[in-house]
Specification:
- By secondary structure, the chain is α/β, with parallel strands linked by helices.
- It has 21 helices and 29 strands.
- Strands 8-20-13-19-18-14-17-16-15 form a nine-stranded mixed sheet, with helices on both faces. The protein has a five-stranded mixed sheet with strand order 25-24-23-26-27. Strands 22-28-29 form a three-stranded antiparallel sheet.
- It is elongated and about 95 Å long.
- It starts with 6 loop residues before the first helix and ends in a 12-residue tail after the last helix.
- The relative contact order is 0.10.
């Protein structure tokens, strides 16, 4: 087997993976286009080459990664290798290591949307399968394939619904031809951008009987990509062709954040309508409209004035500032009993968005209701805001002018200058929302108290594990959720001690792990474990300390600079969830999350220090 990931090995791997593009980046989730510059992506490994060199040439362990994403996460491979090496040094085989913390491949685990956290904690959002660009391309019918060729000035969506199971074709191509043949934009014949054509074709999928299967369209992208042009084209096409395809009388009801925004979209259609015999316009401030043969109307209304109509197509612009009740209780009921009605909700992200757009996106990401089409361009949470590749991937249409605009907006945001167009006092958050379309899809859950230790401070305390028999081992359970085994090493009197925490399923597994380390001293066991039959013949010491006491011990060790860890997820997750408030005798625990690893680590650390005769310095590593 080749020892190096270089030369012909990498060339052959790249050639193999290139045939599988487009595909999402295994790090950030942003789609890598089929015609992407080869220098922008690499063949990454699900399990790192450092920790699992034997899987280096296994194609099932390969994945596509942006070059920038791979370079930024190199430390993760170091941490993974340290964890695996430590368990191997403790005598565990690879099969046993897999049993201790099984590694899920990207294909096995559900895709997650990481959540923002602002002074609180959010759960990641699970996204159902089938919403990636690669999924749409792989299962595309013939009528859609011409619109899946992404040109050089475009990027595919971050999320897109699959073709509806009942669709046999789309009115989209004919609609695009009608719009481009009849409409004008800025004094020239209208020419749609690639993303607009894709959106129209997907929206106008039809069943065998000619009806439209998608009743709701959730469409979201950054500012200034041409949403208004698409809305105007759809409204006019529905008036002109709706009577032929659906029912005789068509009503397009257009609302949004405010009436001024709606009027602006309609305003450019007034001269066009007035120049044609069968068309007319009304420019009133409160009830503007465009009409075709009098009975087919496109009317603009404020978000609070949509009741009393029978809408065939409802357009909601800048939906971020529209209350859910305006749509759920007022607008959507106007579409009942119409033939092939559609509600198109479109918006760029906003930090102060109502739950209308956010809630519907969350619901559609999680569940396919059979009626909602999702089409979202944007950057995933955690993306590098300064990376031009991220900017481009988040933009359905790209040009030199757009790049200059985003450079200017980003530089101003870094300088702390607010963007009047963004309507947000936080320049960075405004840039993320308006130009990268990064929705905050979870409410932040405010937590009582303060964190025992901040993530950056905890991350700075990492250390590698020694290849020796540990000085102390402790175990504690957390009801039926599992058992944490803490393994501690004491070093010199002046140096720190190391502690690792591993999650196992039951007492038997905990005992087996303790023995595999070579440790022969008494096990420190929580009161619930001390009487377990698995430890009947084991040298042991029952520990009866409360969680609060263990947290105080951990806080003391942290303040002494005596704790380090190896980046393991199990211990790290529990430590970072600990919340405290000041008390008369030290920090008082106010969180109620799982803390068996915290207790076991505190016991093992104290015992290792005592046995080594250390004074007050100590280190603690953890394991996933």
């Amino acid at each position: 087997m080749p020892r190096e990931w270089s030369g012909r090995v990498v060339t052959n791997a790249r050639a193999h993976m290139a045939t599988k593009l487009p595909a999402p980046c295994g790090r950030c989730g942003v789609t890598i286009a089929a015609d992407a510059d080869p220098s922008t992506w690499i063949v990454g490994h699900i399990r790192s080459r450092a920790a699992y060199p034997e899987l280096m040439l296994e194609p099932s362990n390969w994945r596509h990664e942006h070059d920038a994403c791979s370079r930024k996460t190199a430390q993760a491979a170091v941490i993974e290798k340290a964890k695996v090496d430590a368990l191997r040094a403790a005598g565990l085989s690879d099969a046993e290591i897999e049993a201790v913390f099984p590694h899920e491949t990207d294909a096995q685990k559900p895709p997650l949307l990481p959540a923002h956290t602002h002074g609180g904690q959010d759960e990641p959002l699970v996204i159902r399968e089938g919403l990636s660009w690669a999924d749409l391309c792989q299962a595309a019918p013939e009528w859609l394939k011409p619109y899946l060729v992404v040109p050089g000035d475009a990027s595919p969506p971050l999320w897109v619904s699959p073709v509806h199971a009942e669709s046999v074709g789309s009115y989209g191509p004919e609609a695009i031809e009608w719009m481009e043949s009849n409409l004008r934009e800025r004094g020239r014949p209208l020419r749609f951008r690639w993303w607009q054509k894709l959106a129209i074709v997907l929206q106008l999928q039809h069943r065998e009987d000619g009806t439209l299967p998608y009743r709701v369209i959730l469409e979201s992208g950054p500012r200034r990509i041409g949403k208004s042009v698409r809305l105007r084209g759809m409204a006019l096409w529905r008036l002109a062709k709706g009577p032929e395809l659906f029912e005789d009388e068509q009503l397009v009801l257009h609302t949004g954040k405010d009436l001024a925004i709606v009027r602006e979209v309609m305003r450019k259609a007034w001269p066009w309508a007035e120049a044609r015999d069968d068309w007319s316009s009304k420019k009133g401030m409160t009830e503007p409209q465009v009409a075709y043969r009098e009975v087919n109307r496109w009317v603009a209304r404020s978000k609070d004035s949509t009741t009393g109509y029978d809408a065939c197509l409802a357009l909601v612009d800048e939906s971020w500032d529209v209350p859910p009740a305006s749509i759920d209780d007022d607008l959507e009921p106007t579409m009942l009993e119409r033939e092939s009605p559609q509600l198109l909700l479109t918006s760029t992200a906003h930090r102060r968005a109502t739950s209308l757009m956010r809630g519907r996106i969350i619901d559609t990401l999680a569940v396919d209701d059979g009626e909602t089409l999702l089409l979202v361009w944007g950057a995933p949470v955690g993306a590098d805001l300064s990376d031009r590749a991220v900017w481009r991937a988040a933009s359905p249409h790209w040009s030199a002018d757009r790049e200059k605009m985003m450079e200017s907006k980003y530089e101003k945001a870094l300088a702390g200058e607010t963007d009047p167009e963004a309507d947000d006092p936080d320049p960075i958050e405004a840039f993320k929302a308006q130009y990268l379309n990064m929705w905050k899809l979870r409410h932040t859950k405010r937590l009582r108290g303060t964190a025992l230790v901040e993530p950056d401070a905890w991350a700075a305390r990492t250390a590698a594990m020694p290849d020796t028999v540990p000085t102390a081992v402790a175990a504690e359970s957390w009801f039926a959720e599992g058992i944490s085994v803490a393994i501690a090493w004491a070093t010199t009197k002046e140096g720190p001690a190391l502690v690792r925490a591993i999650d196992v399923e039951d007492a038997a597994a905990a005992l087996e792990l303790a023995r595999a380390t070579g440790y022969r001293g008494p096990l420190l066991l929580g009161a619930s474990l001390a009487d377990d039959p698995a430890f009947r013949t084991t040298r042991k010491k029952a520990m009866k300390a409360r969680v609060g006491a263990a947290v105080q011990d951990l806080d003391r060790l942290l303040s002494e600079g005596a704790i380090q860890h190896d980046g393991g997820e199990h211990l790290t997750g529990q430590v970072l969830e600990v919340r405290t408030m000041p008390g008369a005798d030290g920090p008082r625990l106010v969180s109620n999350t799982r803390a068996d690893a915290v207790k076991a680590v505190a016991w093992a650390t104290s015992e290792a220090r005592r046995r080594a005769g250390a004074s007050s310095r100590m280190v603690l590593p953890s394991s996933a």
